[in-house]
Records
---
Amino acid sequence: MKIKLNLPTFSAVFFTIAILVGVFFWFRVTTNDMVTKNNQYYLEEITKAQASTFHAQLEDQLIMLEAQARYFEDVDMTNLDEITRAVSALKEIGEFKTIGVANLKGESIDTAGKYTKNISRYDYFASASKGTRTVSKMTYYNKELGEVLVLAVPIMQKKAPAGIVYGYFKKQSLSSMIQSVSHPEKTASILFTLDGTILAREADISLLSAKTTNFYEAGTKWQLKKNTSLDDIKLEVLNGNTVILPYKNTENINLISILAPLGVHDWYYAMLIPVSVITRQSKTISNHVLLVILFVSMAFIVLFTAVLFLLKSNEIMAKTNEKYMIVSTQTQTIVFDYDFDKSKLELNGSLETLFSEPQNSFEGKDVLSLLSKIHEDDNSFRKELLHLRYSDSSSVMREIRILCVDEIYYWFKITGTIVRHENGTPARFVGNIINVEEEVNKEKQLTKKAEEDALTGLLNKGAFADYVQKRLDEASPDDLYAFYIIDLDNFKKVNDTLGHIVGDRVISDTAQKLCVVFSNFDYVGRIGGDEFAAFLNLSTEGKKLGRKIIESKAQLICKKLKETYSDGTHSVTVSASVGVSLYPQSGVAYEELYKNADTVLYKSKTGGKNQFHIAE
């Protein structure tokens, strides 16, 4: 039977190809702007995250200094000899190479046993001696250490400052901190003050000359919006906004700088990235789209021609459609047939999901090599397959993770049946492998939703208890954990006076603040209306300071959660009372730790609120 190629057929082919080509050119025109905007948003988020991480690292150093300051709570700060004896007991901690102590006159001595010049004129002394922990606004030159940043905390005696503890933080250490949170692309991260003075930078920066000491001198041409000056940019950042600033550097390279406030003095954190990195991505996407469209066009023409010659009758057309429907319903499905006698495996179906160059047949050692694609956490299933010949089972059904061609593990459901010889020995193992990634992810999402508190997103009471108990079941006697119960003070008054909308905001704010105090390695949950709990997992390094870190976390909770809320007419101050129990001293099970922490929480409540107690 001859096929008639009429005008409508050719018109359909022509217009389909024309639409594909038109889509490509439209995409090529718009993709640069789209990719640029997406990258800028992505880089803004990274810069803010890096600034937050850097700020948190400085906070950790201040907490270490506060721990040292407690050694001087009973020292006579007017007696230099007594101060000298106490200082001699101090050791280097964290990144601090030298630690010093000064009285309120500014007379100081450091851990090297040397009296230093009077420090009362320095900005960090003025702040710390008034009871505020602080970071110096600039770097200072130290004869032994070179340029240093100074961190200082007050020594409190009878609730009043009696002196300060300060630490010299080498400028190289600042650069190392920046390096540790750097973006993997070809970027540069720097730290600078409001006037542009660069305080620290990455150790190896090709985008910013080592001779450049002021950020605002790095650009030969600032590409600012109309009627916008550098002073306007500084004001934007000073107001807490993240700013994108394009410019050309001294090497005539087009760059984009993303500026974000650090939250310390008027310092800024900035990431610099070449414009070429972004435009290269746009070109790559456009070229890939062109290739895809060309291949799709060619495939369409070949497919259309093949269909014309295949559809010789309605019967053939019907059978072809039926086969097409069967194949389409088996997307991401692989059918397997393993012959035990020949040690041969036959595969059919969506093999492109597993192999860059699909292969249908495997024998001997090649069959065993396929087992390496199974995730190591599903190792028990590997063993089950290896011993299948000797198994009495008639069928197998498991969900496992398999490494696919894109180097990502996806969930598959494997269902197989063992066909046996007349004597009962296995002859073949046949079945299919189906991609169930979407179903598994939905199940995980439902599990996560069941574990989360609806208002805060924290673990709910049941999930928190399960996670903590599981960690305790795996713990050893040498581990050290801290269990915190946090109860909000005056919360009922917030609901009664300011309303439940403000009450919900107090609960949400509390959750966010607790997530700042504790890390991703800890557990934080909401276990009641205004009652929260946290489980602190001390690292190997953290165990050396032990109780000091546990106490500093409790103090930080009290400090951060104390806040006044208002509706414009009335105001209520909310604070937190905290009870802490320790593993293994206060218990080795969840209920024991909860009970003991709750007992000392009562002491915090009845003792005046906004304080913490630790179960002894």
---
Amino acid sequence: MTPMKPYLSFDEVHAGAQPVQKGASESGAEKPHAVVIGSGFGGLASAIRLAASGWRVTVLEKLDAPGGRAYVYKRDGFTFDAGPTIVTAPFLFDELWTLCGRRREDHVTLKPMDPFYRIRFDDGTWFDYTGDPERMRAEVARFSQGDVAGYDSFMVDAEKCYRLGFEGMAETAFDNFSNLLEAIPAFTRMKAWSSIHTLAASHFKNPKLRIVFSFHPLLIGGNPFSVTCAYALIASLEKRHGVHWAMGGTGALVRGLVDLIVEQGSTIRYNTEVTRITVDKGRASGVELAGGETMTADIVVSNGDTAWTYRNLVEPRYRRHWTNARLDRSRYSMSLFVWYFGTRKQYHDVPHHMMVLGPRYKELLDDIFKRKHLAEDFSLYLHRPTASDPAMAPAGCDAFYVLSPVPHLDSGTDWSEHAERYRDAIAESLEKSVMPGLRNEIVTSFYLTPQDFQDRLLSFKGAAFGMEPLLLQSAWFRPHNRSEDLEGLYVVGAGTHPGAGMPGVLASAKALMSVLPEAASVVRARR
């Protein structure tokens, strides 16, 4: 088994060292210029919205292909999505195609998942999670007949959180203190000071059902015992809009968005790392690239890790709010160990999305989030895309990745020493639980560690989702979409409002537009 180096890229025409450029209009120089740092979903969505609003856009990507955490690897005939795989708010993608006069369904097919997930407990029992209330009640009854009514009352609270927390807050920036004051009644109605596990426990007596209805924040970097119960909105979001798979992988969505950007006349440059945000007369004036090249801009939008952006790209003299000391004492999400592998046989009993829980739950989360201790046991998210999309692997084979939440780099773990042993322990666990004979069937294998999140993806402390989504690190308390420190700097993606996950980072691009000056006014001011 080998670590994930050298890194593999798309075998697409978009990849490569040269800029991707198409259809720049003659009047493009008259438009105000926006530089977008990073081509994750937040950066790609921002680029599309900016261009549709009259901006000339240049996207700069450190890697050799687009996607950021949604990068794609091709190896030995297998296709592996690097990170996000669960599409829960397809309307946010549809909006981007609509802005460009296109229909998403003409370019990317989204396939509904059924079930959404299987949650397997260490004793071999499992819960199949769907969007069908009748089937969900039947699943709840299998574990505890007395908790069926609790499912209905929990979903009432989840719907309230969706209306107040997602529809009411996600797409508008928390730009000043008055925004927070306006939101306090909604936070109060959601009882947002309670954790999502506390909310689940108020509706369900069965401990397994409490896990089933509170695990979702783990998919966006939060501890269910600590994050606000507002994240119950995810249950309502999924029930309303479903859980989908993009045929061809998450990379199909990335490639589709890149195509839209190119059609708009914008530019994407790969193998182009930003090393500094330049400042002129107290406002962001552009960027400096590795190698010394500079690029001027009217605004800079960072889709990079927010803490990394402030610590490494903005000089300390321009940071009165997000100082190094403040960033250091903030609390960050866990990191991830992600093992990608392909097998010569197919495991038909494994569904597309599966949570494989270990013998401990709260204690393991305490190790990860509080003690920053790499435990010997683990709970896993097992992803088998070939359950829905056989083209992700050679004929008769299966593609997988398995994701294990682990502490970020404050644990002091030397992953160059631990990674292979950790991977083998995961393989042994999967072999004993849901994939018999696994280690004899593997034909390709590589992995991503917290060190890669820091070194390759430039995430502070190797945290996979930015700041932990605690109540006092959410909304107004999270780094703002319009920088508190530097005029002309804006941030999108997991580290800002509203937070991580595909819906969150796509919504951050909409929040950006709510605080951005109109392109026409920028042109007038420039003259």
---
Amino acid sequence: MPILLIPIGLCIIVFFMIVYMASRYKRCPSDKILVVYGKVGTGRSARCIHGGGSMVWPIIQDYAFLGLTPMTIGIPLKNALSMQNIRIDVPSTFTVGISTEPGIMTNAAERLLHLGSKEIEQMAGEIIFGQLRLTVASLTIEQINQDRESFLEAIRKNVEPELNKVGLYLINVNITDITDESTYIESIGKKAAAEAINRAKVDVAEQEKSGAIGEAEAVREREIRVAENLAESEKGKKKAEADQRIFIRGQEAEAVTGENKAIANIAATNAELAVKEAEAMQHSEKGKKQAEADRRIFVQGQEAEAVAGENKAKINIASSNAELAIKEAEAMQRGEVARRQALAEVQKAEYLAEQERLNAAEVVKVEVERRKIEIAADAEAERSRRTAKGRADAILAEYEAEAKGIRQLLDSKASGYLALVDSCGGDARAAATFLMVEKLEQIVEKQVEAISKLKIDKITVWDSGNGSGTGSSTANFISSLIKSLPPLQEVASMAGVELPDYLGSMTKEASTTEAKKPEEPNS
């Protein structure tokens, strides 16, 4: 039974493969372009087909359709500057569509494949608008207004190559009306109308003069022709009468001669006809007797042959019946044996098939459970790996961004310091002094801020009375508080920078003066 199942399984697989491959064959309607993209060949982004069909291979290829329905785009061009620097309005309607030329179809597949009709119309309208304005700028008003065929040809020459770059081609151009604000076109029309009217008046006068002259010449010619025709008519009439009389006499003579010949011919023909009738009657009688004898001989011969044929046919029939009976018996014997053997094989195959079915059902059940466990474990492992990888990528990206920011900050500072040193003539000490001077304002601001944020509502000073007598305890407290802030000169000297003299210097007299400031009243 397993040996029988293998061909059946192969047949089923082949059938489904054929059905699947048939479903992958895509036909292209006449109003669309079939675009097959994916792996379509070296150096090609897509394969475009118009009409027919193509096989789209699974996994490595996919397909889409581009519609060939024409699109009508209105271009309300206004205030376009012509070659004469006159602004005109050229409202027009353009009909465009996707081209079926091989190269242009590829451009359409690359640039328009998944765009909607509105987006394609918008793109085409922008291209046409710019090229139409360029075309108007290269022509005069007279060329645009009077020679429309050349104007349309110039538009097609400028617009169509640009449309071909995105896969479109120009079907039709319709210019409705051309106007301008300065009424230049209207003036040209009035001038042309006046010229046409004047030219028409001259033509009318010329035609009237020609008509009068022609009429006089026609009357004279008519009278001459009438006289000539009357004379020719009279001569013709006389000649016709003479010819008629001659023809009648000739016909009468020919008629008499023909009658005599006809009578002689009739007599000779009658004599020959009588002789031939006699000969035909004699031959007819002989032929009749001969035909009767031949018929009887032929009939007897055919009857003898028919009897011999019937006897031979009966012998052949009897022999054939005997052979048929023998072969039927042998066939019945072989058929019965084959039937019994086939029945035994069928019963044996049914037993084996049932046994295999039970075993397969149990194996399949166990295999399904095992695959479920494996799939769940693989999914959990994959989720853990992806989570860990995502966390690691996020941390790495954060550190990389921070490092990049610090690196850019340091690079910027280094570039600024280098430019500062260069501006100081290469003297690094002078550059450091300059930087320290810039920071003095911030240092003083921080010192003031440190004291200003102290909330002193009430100060109580406990003094043991052992002071030096050079001031009250409160004054000494305030002086000590002020002295706790480092002087600017000391801060600069700690940085290895000597401040200039115009920023002041720290002396003993200044220190004494600082200590002898007025006392703060005790609170």
---
Amino acid sequence: MIAESGHYALVLALGLALIQSIVPLIGARLRDAALMNVARSAALAQLLFVGASFIALVMLHVNSDFSVANVYENSHSMKPLIYKITGVWGNHEGSMLLWVSILASFGGMVAAFGNNLPLSLRAHVLAVQAWIASAFYLFILVTSNPFLRIANPPIEGRDLNPVLQDIGLAVHPPMLYLGYVGFSISFSFAIAALMEGRIDAAWARWVRPWTLVAWIFLTLGIAMGSYWAYYELGWGGWWFWDPVENASLMPWLAGTALLHSALVMEKRNALKVWTILLSILTFSLSLLGTFLVRSGVITSVHAFATDPTRGVFILLILCLFIGGSLSLFAGRATSLKQGGLFAPISREGALVLNNLLLSVACAVVLFGTLYPLAMEALDFKMSVGAPFYNLTFVPLFALLLLAVPLGPMLAWKRGDLLGVTQRLLAAGVAALVVIAIVWAWTRGGSALAPLAIGLGVFVIGGAMTDLSERTGLFRLPFATTLHRARGLPRSAWGAAFAHAGLGIALIGIVCETTWNSEYIATMKQNDVAHVAGYDLKLDGLSQRQGPNFREMIAEFNVSRDGEKISVMTPSKRNFTTRGSSTTEAALLTRGASQLYVSLGDATADGAIAVRIYHKPLVLLIWWGPVLMAFGGMLSLSDRRLRVGAPKPARAKQRLQPAE
């Protein structure tokens, strides 16, 4: 009965989405407030029903109802409760239900918290959201129904893919989807603006918070996915330029450009057409990522589906929304006024350069992802890997990072590049000192590595310089500096933290890839491995029975200069139901660096294959994105960016006494 209830709730959500997609548009055409308000009620009701459908699927997994095909294919009665819950979206059907649930949640938030929007604009935005929701409800019900029953229910399930039985599944996909789907709001605002034929600085003010929310979640989702791959796959890598990894990177790059472009539009009423186009392209890239993961056109550990029927359906959705939106843009963009002018050397000019570099970098990743697929369609087998991206993407991003400290310190409309360069002198000197120190103290690796670390220091120093200039640090009395710091807009603090996070991540990437130490060998009991000054002694192997797996555990005593530091216990798990195994790496954190140990196969004489890595400053790779997301949250908490915040003029008007 639970499965049928979940299925019917999904059907009702589809019906509500169809109403929401049509009636408000009629109301907007007739200027009927009652019909336009149907969008709000329908969006909230749609959220209620799709939420009920999702909860029903969770209950089926928790109760191990193997009469439902989705539960049978992806669960096991002995699986821990946390993995029963996360297993709901550890498969194609369940993950699509999570996708549309998040989509409905964003629509519901616009309905609930978008009271400051003009009624017509809100009606158009929610109608466009309903178009997207209707298409994906149909996709789920026609090709990917998670509530299908099995005629003769089995006693036990097939279990979830062992690689997915990890806490990372509880965090990574939901955050990634919150980012992917969150950009649908920016898309809906753009289409609504094109339909109404009106776009201004107020539009940018309304769309920025939603874009920022999506960007924050996508940043955290990508970082979490990278860390999950790092410790779970046993290879010690954190990024592989996998097509599905690229599918999440592309909307992040476009979304970052959109945030900066919307800032120019809000502050200077410029870049209107470009901001609308970026809003469309960012969500289009999210849809492209959905297609790549679920169409079967690529083979990846991330890919969910190989059914060509699903791929064709999603391709139709892709063509409908991307083609339709770009056609609407082509027809209406010429009627939009471009807005204010500015000099090339200005904050607007720096943000345009930012957009240019981000857009070209995104295009490079798109080409590297789709070109092998196009060649494969012509029966030419090929792959595009790290060498291609190192030659194309990396130089573009290096130029972007070099320009990052300059932008916030330039004035709007017309800036003084020489004055900004002088103010960044301290950051430049610090970068040069760090380059000299790294060059003198390190051995081996690329000669460009010290320069890259210096660039990271320059970015961090630039963010600190911007804050010190704004607060008058070292120029004004401390009490005055403190007062100015408290009065500084949170968006300024947020931008500085986000830019510093980029520099921190760059330093981590360079140190890990350049000076990573590796030891791969077959070890027996009492053998000692020597890695980067650490001694790892294998004390022995033991067996342990888990809830739905059998585990072989190795115990390593770690010491340095004769002093015992810790014990590391990597393991290898064998899941009998699935007939597969996973490697559970052991990590020892020392500051921002880590020792990493993973196990391979055991031999007949009692030895075992071992991979041991020392990864200097590797944690900076993920601390950087976390700091970036924190900066985004600070910006989001700025009263000027909060959805529904009253305009200063209105607030002042309410304070005036009645006559």
